[in-house]
Every structure is written in structure tokens, then in C-alpha cells.
Amino acid sequence: MTSLRALLLLLSVLMLGGCAEKKEPLYQEQGYVFGTLVEVSIYGKPEDEAKLAVSEVMQEFQRLHTMLHAWQPSELSELNDGLAHGDSVAVSDEMAAILKDAAQLSKQAHGMFNPAIGGLVALWGFHADEFKPVQPADKDIAALVTSNPQMSDLSIERGRVESKNSAVQIDLGGYAKGYALDRAAMLLHQRGINNALINIGGNVLALGKHGERSWKVGIQHPRKSGAIASMELHDGEAIGTSGDYQRYFMIGNVRYCHIINSHTGYPMQAVQEVTVITHGPQAGVLSDVDSKPLFISGTKGWRNAAKLMAVDEAMLVDEQGRVHLTAAMQKRLEFTDKNTNVEVE
């Protein structure tokens, strides 16, 4: 429900002014893919043309959802089954390219972005449509941490994948939505659509403008309904937020979220939210990936992690609700509460 609340907030921000501009050529369509609400907004095209383009994008989202699902039958689940048995598994060219890219990004992040820890994600109960309180045995957590699954354990050659470490289980939950954003942008550009906003559960990619102005998006407050801040998103930019309020469960007063530190085997608990702005041809993928190393590094290491991932514009909300910003991010944000205390680092 928190993901739904965050997305509805974003949609409400996007539609500000819509009532006053009823005749504007803005086509919007929503769907439900990747376990979250998605929306594509297209500006400046006839409705029939925009509708066909959005239909193609939604079909692509569904294709990727089916391909990359971690616990339902998919190409990825078949790969994981084979890796667990020490097999060499044939994969599509697209899957091989995705795995190579994810491995490179994991190397850049010094393992703080680690899609190889699907076993830990499953152990904590996050390979499910609904999250129920789970407290894994310490010995089971320790065994997976000791096995140290890494993307570098994979060998990807001539359309086949194998692993020297049978503990490797791939979970692309921190990559797939961003990859889908980039795919959607490519499909829209191919159709001559240059002004659009693509939103997958709060990971958002902007193309062009909303008429005479830039697209405007809101960033969900991690502990309240509504936005903590809003900002303009420019052509080719993407925004991505990782939060402990999206996929989590409570045991007593302790919150366990889906973002797991592979070095400890436990969900992160010292950060409420991280938001990053990314640019370039892989803006979507990077908006999904780059927030994870900052989140896992916490308040002491997030700035170093940002430098590691070449992120200039980032915000972190710590466990006390204090807002930490890079100087470049401070210039972009308009806080809902004008009295919000921020630390520029």
C-alpha cells in the first residue's frame, strides 16, 4: 500500500494545473506491472497516436516483468534453478547483456549493489507478493553471508551462464524497473515521441517537456502522506528513490525493509530514504541502481558511495528524519515544509 500511496502522490503532482488546462494535449495511461503501478504520460500528440505508443510500452513492461521475475516461472527463475544445481544455463542475448551490465555496476559499487543475493532476499520473505513478518535463523543468515555470492562469480560466455558459487541467486529487483524505463524511452523515441514522462512505481524518466514547462515530480515523504519535496525533471533525466517504506514488515517496533546489506545479511535500518538524479543513455538503469549503495552506506558513507557511482545530485533521509543533501541536489529541490532542516554535505 505504501508503494501505491507514493505513486498516487507522484501522479497528483504531475497533474497539477491539469484542471485549468483541460484542452492540453496530454494523454495518460496507467497499468500494474513489476508489482507496482506504472504510468506513461505523453504530451503534444494526437490521442490515437499516443494511445498506440503507450500500448507498445505497456506490452514491453509486461514482457520484461515475465522475463525477469525472481520467484515466479521466468527466464530468470530458470537460470537460478540451474545455478543452484551447478549447471551451465543457456540464456537469451538480452539476459546475457543485462547480467553483464549488472555485474559491471556491482563492481563499480564495490558490491553494495549486489543482485547475486537473491537467496538472502528470499530468506527474509521478500520473494512474495505480500510481506509477512519473518525472522530467519542466525545460522541460515550466516551461512549465506559466508558463502559470499557475487556477480563476479558468474561466467557469461557464448550465450551460457554458470557460476563457480552455487549460492548465487540473481534478483534484479534493483535493476529491472530502471531497465524498463530506458526501454520505454527508446520505444517512444522510435515513434517520434519526444515529450513524455514514464513512471514505474516512483522511478521516473523524463523526455522533453510538458508544453512550455519542465515535468514536475514529487518525492514521497518516508513517514508522512504527501511529498517531502518536489522538483523539475529535465529532458533525459531520471529520478529514483529507495525507501524503507515501500517493501517492509514490522516485528515489534523494528522495521525490516527489502534493502539488505550483503555484508551483514540483515535489512538496513539506519536510513529511511535515498533519492538520486541520473542522466545519460542509461539514466533509467542508474536511477534504480545508484540509490542502493548510498542507502547501504548510511549517513557515514553515503557521500563516498555517491562519488563511487558518479552521482552529484542525491538526498538521504536518516533514521531520525534528518535530511542530508549534496550541494547540487539542494539547488534542485523545493521542500513542502519550508522549515525543513537540511544538512548539505
Helix and strand arrangement:
Layout: H1 2-14, E1 26-33, E2 36-43, H2 47-68, H3 75-84, E3 89-90, H4 93-108, H5 118-123, H6 138-147, E4 154-157, E5 160-163, H7 176-190, E6 196-200, E7 203-207, E8 215-220, E9 227-233, E10 238-243, E11 248-251, E12 254-257, E13 260-261, E14 266-267, E15 271-278, H8 283-289, H9 291-308, E16 313-318, E17 323-325, H10 327-330, E18 334-335, E19 342-344
Parallel strand pairs: 17-19
Antiparallel strand pairs: 1-2, 2-6, 3-5, 4-5, 6-7, 7-10, 8-9, 9-18, 10-15, 11-12, 13-14, 15-16, 16-17
Helix pairs in contact: 2-7, 7-8
Task: Give a verbal description of the structure.
The protein has a domain at 68-128 and 135-163: T-fold. It contains ten helices and 19 strands. The chain has helices at residues 2-14, 47-68, 75-84, 93-108, 118-123, 138-147, 176-190, 283-289, 291-308, 327-330; strands at 26-33, 36-43, 89-90, 154-157, 160-163, 196-200, 203-207, 215-220, 227-233, 238-243, 248-251, 254-257, 260-261, 266-267, 271-278, 313-318, 323-325, 334-335, 342-344. β11 and β12 (254-257) form a beta hairpin. α2 packs antiparallel against α7 and α7 runs antiparallel to α8 (283-289). The two termini are 33 Å apart.
